[in-house]
Amino acid sequence: MKDIKAGLVGVTGYTGMEMARLLATHPSMRLVRATSRSQAGAVLGNLFPGLRATACADVQVSVPEADDLARNCDVVFLAVPHGAAMDFAAELLKAGVPVVDLSADFRLRDPQVYAQWYGQEHRHPELLSQAVYGLPEINAEAVAKAKLIANPGCYPTSVILGLYPALKNGLVHTSDIVADSKSGATGSGRKAAVGSLFCEVSDTFRAYNLGKHRHTPEIEQEVSLVAGEDMRISFNTHLLPINRGILSTIYTKLTQERTVEDIHALYTDFYADAPWVRVLPLGELPETRWVRGTMFCDIGLVVDPRTNRLLIVTAIDNLCRGASGQALANANLVCGLPLQSGLDFAALAP
């Protein structure tokens, strides 16, 4: 059995915490470096009591230093905000260490688009062409050969997986697609902010960043590649009063009349070899509780004959499938492990 040493830059955020949780039980990969400037010197089992008596419990948090990570790690996860990841990635890649970046720094292929949506220039545009977009159902072979993985965003994962078979098979028009997505409060990160306080989130439901969410160009980039043409999507986000989960309802227009049975059969066949995509039986629709803490993406399909629309509903866990779990799946491929290593578990329900 392999013993792969992993480093984690940014352990104190929700995605860093989730990554530590997943690595604590991984059969072939162990966490040897966990970094945080604010918590340097702390021991993970004390910092996060849920990790006590696990394989990660005694890992001491250190200040992030690329040289130290390169010397001691076989693969490094970057769970830091956009803008902070690109310099670490450049140094680690120069030292020959594979990188899985959970930020947005390498998702967009055009540095000008990155600057437009993220408000800063990309300091390492020469690396963008090396980055592989890490959606395993689509790019597993490329991921396995890559050194730099751009881990997809949580919202884009839910939307792209829902749309991919329909676009690939010309089922829907490429114009007038609306993706209506709702996320739990962990999607905004662990930083202190009034908008994510308990009393601001509980017992309410609100839209935010309509028409200007930063995941928009990422979604458009990837679905345009599938469709073979430049696409624009109306992507709209909302905040749910729950901790984890994303539910996306995608409204499309069919190119011709099709029965829901035909489309369901096509989706089922398309994802037949994808262990984490569950195309639900006809008449069932996804719920966030049935994917909580898992790698599953549940897909439900409805055809509205009155409007000739195909409605695609997806549910994922934003922290696991939408971030840390997907990053670990990509690292499995990069390190020559089976895709599902350390990632097969049922939902945390209730």
Detailed description of the structure:
By secondary structure, the chain is of the alpha/beta class. The protein is built from eleven helices and 14 strands. The strands form two sheets. It has a seven-stranded parallel β-sheet, sandwiched between helices. β4, α4 and β5 form a beta-alpha-beta unit. α1 crosses α11 and α6 packs parallel to α11. It is globular and about 60 Å long. 47% of the residues are buried. The model has no long low-confidence stretch (mean pLDDT 97).
H/E element order? EHEHEHEHEHEHEHEHEHEEHEEEH
Major pleated sheet: 7 strands, parallel
In DSSP terms (H or I, runs of 4 or more residues), the helix count works out at 11
Share in helix: 25-40%
CATH class of the largest domain: Alpha Beta
Cα distance spanning the termini: 34 Å
Could you list the spans in which at least 5 consecutive residues all have pLDDT below 50? none
Shape verdict: globular
Under CATH, the topology of the largest domain is which? Dihydrodipicolinate Reductase, domain 2
CATH architecture of the largest domain: 2-Layer Sandwich
Determine Rg (CA atoms, Å): 20 Å
Mean pLDDT comes to 97
Strand content: 15-25%
Q: Taking strands numbered 1, 2, ... along the chain, how are they ordered across the largest sheet?
A: 3-2-1-4-5-7-6
The CATH superfamily of the largest domain is identified as Dihydrodipicolinate Reductase, domain 2
Structural class: alpha/beta
Number of strands: 14
Number of domains: 2
